[in-house]
Queue: 2 jobs
Job 1
Amino acid sequence: MIQSLRFRAAVVSIAIFLAFIGVWHLATRSTASVGTMSPEYAKLMGLTATSGKSAMPGPLDVGAKLWEHLRRPFYDNGPNDKGLGIQLGYSIGRVGLGYFIAVLVAIPLGFLIGMSPLMNKALDPFIQVLKPISPLAWMPLALYTIKDSSLSAIFVIFICSVWPMLLNTAFGVAAVRKEWINVARTLEVGTFRRAFTVILPAAAPTILTGMRISIGIAWLVIVAAEMLVGGTGIGYFVWNEWNNLSITNVIIAILMIGVVGMLLDQTLARFTRMVTFPE
Amino acid sequence: MSSTKFISIEGIAKRYPAANGGATTIFEDLWLSMPSGEFGCIIGHSGCGKTTVLNILAGLDEPSEGTVIVDGQAISGTSLDRAVIFQSHALLPWLTVMGNIAYAVSSKWRKWDKAKVRGHAQTYIDKVGLTGSEHKRPSELSGGMKQRVGIARALSITPKIMLMDEPFSALDALTRGTLQDEVRRVTLETGQTTFMITHDVDEAMYLADKIFLMTNGPGAVLAEIVENPLPRDRSRIDLHKHPHYYALRNHIIDFLVTRSKTFTATTPNHDPRRVPVVRPQFTEAPTMPSLTSALR
Ligand SMILES: Nc1ncnc2c1ncn2[C@@H]1O[C@H](COP(=O)(O)OP(=O)(O)O)[C@@H](O)[C@H]1O
Ligand SMILES: [Mg+2]
């Protein structure tokens, strides 16, 4: 039954995909209605008008271009012409670094907030105010103080990924079952050992859920951040290709952003499953 | 240290702030003592404060007044000398059976190496009949097996006192019976001092040397200490065949059904420091529980 459900779902998925490609192909197919517009206007519009070809690339164009990118993902012909793999590598590197620093800050701080009602109350107003700020709003301040566009992007990733991890860690730590804490207390387990042997494993699923939310947000934000700071990265690539009017490359970049985002999410989902315990 | 007062609860009270700004007194001026090696059961209606007493004894909770003295020393906080078997078994679900017990063992003997810890834990796993289930997680165990792990964990740290809060109330009758046998066997074997809360009159009669009867709260008092007249080599199966069985049972049931509500009103001279000790026994004449030693 499960097997057949999975099989039927796969069939439907493929059907939807083919239908989408089909409609896309039909919608962007060459049309032979060139003659009706004035020659000047046609010239202005370039290929679109003169050959009757739509400005929107069709699936075949995108497929061909994608193949080209996949064959040479790491070429480097100067600042404005780098392989897709290199650009994605820059973005993943920034996300990884900003996210890693956020983990180092959020998890110990979350433990402190979760274990100490005093710190919880004392830090709450700051968290409440800082949390809703759009990470990109920090960008000018970051550029001004750090004076380095790449580091500023990393800072923005840090600031956007820190909140879900911090709040989830604090919540997970505070919500550890009283009885498990009592077990540690009756065994005279010290605070430090208790944090690692009881609270950490008990709160791990909640913490990992926060980390999964964070990586998703970080990947959303990096594209926007790189559009702003420029230079390298997949966000910059999208912006650059838009300026080149290469919609094909823009579509490919969008696809790649989706695929990498999915892989990041799946990785964290796997870690979450590893620390989840059945009760 | 007097051997009759291995555990001595001395005038403890527990109050919670009430809605009107005052305080609700769950119980006050509670005195209770137990000699070493004895099995004590506390019986009373829900909400009278049994769990509170046990948690204070464990060090998990603090009394508003009074002290608890164990083995000649006032307690402060929890201790490895007082192991708790929780009603909800409270196993750590991310650890295996072995892991749960080894965690307790390595908490007590911090310098032991892994092999020694495991060897010691294995002894107690075998003792409660869980051999072969060492590598299972709590989620793979039945309710009875989980509680066995809880018992093994408590025993493994060789505590001076075992504290049990309705340990079997969540189990089916059959499992409860076998676990009662197990606990009786182990406590007799090791001479373990044990303090247990129960709702189950038969359980108390089978396991306990002394049964502490608590009146209804709020303002609960320890009304009576019932000495178990049944022989030490009693078995669960033919407990009811013993001549004293019904005298004892009726006495406790009578307390729970009627006297626990009216005790405070009808006994104005009750002295919480000198709680009457009774030993209900079968007599040829109409069944009246006889007061053997009113004062201690
Ligand atoms: N944190 C608390 N605040 C106020 N009242 C409490 C609190 N904890 C327990 N109580 C009250 O103390 C009384 C005794 O509780 P408990 O010791 O759990 O009873 P028992 O175990 O005999 O059923 C109950 O009436 C309960 O409502
Ligand atoms: Mg209770």
Job 2
Amino acid sequence: MNRRKKTIFLICVSIIVIFSVFIGGLIIPETALKADFSIKNSSPSLNHIFGTDYMGRDMFLRTIKGMSTSIIIGMVSSFISVVIAVVLGTVAGTFSKYVDGFVCWLIDFVMGIPHIILLILISFALGRGFKGIFIGIAVTHWTSLARIIRGEVIQIKNEQYIKISKKMGKSKFYIMKNHILPFIIPQTIIGGILLFPHAILHEASVTFLGFGLSPETPAIGIILSESMKYITTGYWWLAFFPGLVLIIVVVLFDILGENIKLLINPYTSQE
Amino acid sequence: MAIECKNITFGYSKDNILFKNISFSVDYGERVGIVAKSGFGKSTLAKIIAGYEKPLSGEIIVDGKPITKKGYNPVQLIYQHPEKAINPMWKMEKVLLEENVLNDYIINSLGIKKEWLKRYPTELSGGELQRFSVARALCENTKFIIADEITTMVDPITQSQIWHFLIEECQKRNMGMIIVTHNMYLAEKICTRIINLEDMALE
Ligand SMILES: Nc1ncnc2c1ncn2[C@@H]1O[C@H](COP(=O)(O)OP(=O)(O)OP(=O)(O)O)[C@@H](O)[C@H]1O
Ligand SMILES: [Mg+2]
């Protein structure tokens, strides 16, 4: 297997697994998660491979459903982050020194505040729930991508073909749309995918700390914080399997991002 | 007096002056050859005239007015290195469409093959690419063309094809041309007047 084939193989596997978890979570009906106290707290078995919780709910189904919710949150908030990063990054690189100075200041300012504190504040201020989480994660996660995009824009701006385009009377907007944006799109896609794991982990931790989604939502953070109450009683499977699935999904996103990067990069893509 | 270079002094840093007080002018319909030894600053001067670099002192006057920064610059430069002058992510078709010069007349006269239009710049040779740079500079608003060693990488037949077409267009549209070259033989053949910058710098 050459490197290119291996890269494509890893990308496909990650997409298939992530997609199955996502779709799986969507099609699991609420009724499948009904309480059944006759089988509460049973350890993993063939019937319930992740065991059951204190209400007798199947932990496998709960985990998949929770993970699916997390993936939606990750997608929406990464997408908003990417949009903010692209807009601010290109604007900083394209327009005057003052605009650039302001954007750089904003990036440093947001980066300077610890993510988790800003997230908790925003989530709290907007009333816990999806809206607070989306906005909180989006607002805290755009900075490093914006900085990368700004650097790329400044680099490409000095290319001869852009200077020529300017001398041919093309507007800044035309140059941005036709020369600069197509150049930064590959970077942006990779940046967006690599943002994903951060977004999911932050959502889980804010929810875990009790500042995020409400306890009725089937979310991985809720499941984990609930499980912590039972961990001393020896019901290890309650935290172990959901935690493991969370880590696996996060790692898969990372593999996906890194391999797409290899594929898009012209120097490594053909090896 | 269509383009006037008045006392142009330039250096990439203040204490390393490349040339001092260069003055000359080029009229419509003229083809002025510029020669000087390698490294003198011919390409640099070409960039100054086309507005890509600012001189330390002196000015460029076109039709009685200093060159404007905004809008279409009637003085268009064709670069020595076409691979840097064309966006590597664009198909050649788009390169020509950007300047609205995708027409059969220009394409055929420059020997651009139809199949090249669907390719990316990395899939063409230097000489093939240069024809696109030439075509692009022939946008209808162009009044002056500065050609900076544009045919050094092509064979004699292609060279004569490109020059024939450029000269014909310039005469038809009454454009002025500044031709930067090492090749004295070429300069004598195509220019109406030759300026040696080294002599000018000595005066
Ligand atoms: N961007 C730059 N920054 C600093 N120095 C430069 C830059 N571009 C060119 N130079 C220097 O300026 C001098 C003149 O360069 P230029 O390319 O104008 O020469 P030229 O006369 O066109 O030479 P050739 O005939 O070899 O093309 C050279 O010594 C070169 O090293
Ligand atoms: Mg040169």
